Amino acid sequence: MAVAVERPANDELRNLSLSGHVGFDSLPDQLVNKSTSQGFCFNILCVGETGIGKSTLMDTLFNTKFESDPATHNEPGVRLKARSYELQESNVRLKLTIVDTVGFGDQINKDDSYKPIVEYIDTQFEAYLQEELKIKRSLFNYHDTRIHACLYFIAPTGHSLKSLDLVTMKKLDSKVNIIPIIAKADTIAKNELHKFKSKIMSELVSNGVQIYQFPTDEETVAEINATMSVHLPFAVVGSTEEVKIGNKMSKARQYPWGVVQVENENHCDFVKLREMLIRVNMEDLREQTHTRHYELYRRCKLEEMGFKDTDPDSKPFSLQETYEAKRNEFLGELQKKEEEMRQMFVMRVKEKEAELKEAEKDLHEKFDHLKRTHQEEKKKVDDKKKELEEELSNFQKKKAAAQLLQSQAQQAGSQQTKKDKDKKNASFT
Ligand code: GDP
Predict the structure, then answer these.
(1) Which of 217, 249, 254, 344 shows its CA 20 to 30 Å from the CA of 358?
(2) Phi/psi of residue 157, nearest 5 degrees
(3) What is the pTM (predicted TM-score) of this model?
(4) Ligand 1 centroid, distance to 56 Cα (angstroms)
C-alpha cells in the first residue's frame, strides 16, 4: 500500500521556537562521547629514500620511540612495512599505523619504485570495499588500514625535485593525501630554502601534481590553514634528543657551531607540520580519504565490474537490474562458449576419425606389400629347392653309376687274381 507524504506546497522548512528545553542540543556531545569510547585510527605513509629521516620524524611527531630497524641500501626492490601502535592522550585512544617504504630510491633502475606503493594503497581500499560489500558487514569495529596521509620526504638538495619524486607523487595524488616535506632542513641555508620551496611548488604545479589542500571552508580552521599553506612544503628537522636550552629541555640537534631546535619556528617548520597534520586537520585527512580517494577507487572498481547508476538513456539503473543484465550477459556468454566447445569437439572427433582412416589405409598398403614380398620370396625359395632337388637326384644317379662301375671293376680284378693263382699252382705241380 502506498503511503502519501504530505509536504508544504513550496517544500520549505519553517522555523519554530521552542517554549522549553528539549535536549537535542546534547547531540554533538553524544557524538563526541561515542567517538571517544570507540577510539580513532590514523594511518600515515612515509615515502622517502632510506636514511632521509622518516623514522626520526615519526618519533619526534608522536613524542615516543617507535620500533624501527635501520634499512640497508641494498634492498632489491621497494617493500612496504606497516606497524600499528595503540596510543593514548588524555582519554582519547588512537590506533596509529605507520607505513615505511623500505628500499625506496636504493635501486639503480627506479622505474618501478612507485608500483609497490600504489599496490599497497589499492590493497587497503580493496579490503575496505570487500568489507562494505559483505552481507554481514562489521564496519563499526573494522580495522581501517586505508592511508590517511602520505608524508613525501624531499631530499634537501636545494636544487629541484628528482624525477623519481615527480613520478611517484603523480602516481599517488589521486589515491592519497600527499603532504610534501623537505627533510633534514637543518642542512640547507635559510635563503636557499626559500628559493627551494618555491621551485618545488612551481614544479608540482607545472607537472600537475595535486597535493593535499588544507581545508578553508570551515570557519574555525580557515585562517590557520590558509596561513600555513603558504609555507608548503614544510622544511622539517627531526630529533628525539633532549638538549637544555635556557632552563628548559627541548628536542634539538646539536652541532659544534650551535643548536637546531626542532620546535622553534625560526629554525624549521616542524611545529607547522604537527599543527597541520595532527592538531588541526587529522579528521579532515580521514574524511578526504573516505569521501574523495576511496570513493574514486570504489567508483572505478564497481564500473569495472559492470555496475552503473544509469542506463544508456540516462535513466536510473537499479542494482537488481544491473545484476539481471550481468547475469543474462554471463549466461549468454556461457551458452556461446558451450556451443563453441561442442563444435570444437565434433571437429576434433572428425579430424581424429580421418587420421585413423588414413592410418588404416597405410596399414593395409603395408600389409599388401609385405604379402607380395613374402610370396615373391617364397617362390624364389621354392625354385631354389627344386633346383637343389634336381641337383641331388642327378648326383644320386651319378653316384649309383659310379658305384656300379666300381663293383664291376672289383669283380674283374678278383677274377684275374684267381686266374693268376691257378696258373701259379699249375706250374708247381
Ligand atoms: P629513515 O631511514 O628514513 O627512517 O632515516 P632515519 O630516521 O633512520 O635517519 C637516518 C639518519 O639521519 C640518522 O642518523 C638520523 O639521526 C639522521 N637524521 C634524522 N633526521 C634528521 C634531520 O632532520 N637532520 C639531520 N641532519 N639528520 C637527521
Answers:
(1) 344
(2) -80, -25
(3) 0.74
(4) 6
The pLDDT score that the predictor gives to residue 8 is: 56
- Residue among 69, 67, 29 nearest 50 (CA): 69
Asked if 52 and 184 count as a contact pair (C-beta separation under 8 A), the reply is yes
Q: Is 51 in the pocket of ligand 1 (CB under 6 A)?
A: yes
Ligand 1, atom 9, lies closest to the CA of 53
**Res. 79 pLDDT band, cuts 50 70 90:** confident
Which residues lie across from 182 on neighbouring strands?
154, 235
Residue 179 φ/ψ region, left for φ over 0, alpha for ψ in the -120 to 50 degree band, beta for the rest = beta
3-state class (DSSP) for residue 89: strand
Query: How many angstroms separate the CA atoms of 363 and 87, rounded?
Result: 85
Where residue 51 falls (left for φ over 0; alpha for ψ -120 to 50; beta otherwise) is left
The one-character DSSP state at 98 is E
Q: How do beta strands 248-255 and 92-102 pair?
A: unpaired
- By CB neighbour count within 10 A (0-12 exposed, 13-18 middle, 19+ buried), where does 309 fall? middle
Which residue from 182, 178, 227, 177 is spatially nearest to 200, judged by alpha carbons?
182
Cα separation, 109 vs 295, whole angstroms: 33
Q: Which three cell numbers stand for residue 238?
A: 627531526
> 288 phi and psi, to 5 degrees?
-60, -35
Contact present, 297 and 213 (Cβ < 8 Å) = no
> Cell digits for 410?
672289383
Reduced to 3 states (helix: H, G, I; strand: E, B; else coil), residue 213 is coil
Q: Is 175 within 8 Å of 293 (Cβ atoms)?
A: yes
105 lines ligand 1 (CB under 6 A): no
Strand order in the sheet with 40-47: 79-89, 92-102, 40-47, 149-154, 178-182, 234-235
Distance 184 CA to ligand 1 centre (A): 7
Cβ 100 vs Cβ 118: under 8 Å: no
Q: What is the pLDDT of residues 232-283, one digit of tens each?
A: 899 999 998 888 888 888 889 988 888 899 988 888 999 999 999 999 999 9
- Distance (angstroms) between ligand 1 centre and the Cα of 165 equals 19
| Among 265, 242, 269, CA closest to 253 | 242
Task: Give the number of the atom of ligand 1 that is nearest the alpha carbon of residue 236.
Answer: 23
Nearest to 323 by CA among 306, 298, 302, 300: 306
Quickly count: other Cβ atoms within 10 Å of residue 220's Cβ.
8
Phi first, then psi: what are they for 100, rounded to 5°? -110, 145
Q: Under a CB-based contact definition with an 8 Å cutoff, are residues 277 and 181 in contact?
A: no
115-133 and 295-304 are packed helices; what angle lies between their axes, rounded to 10 degrees? 80
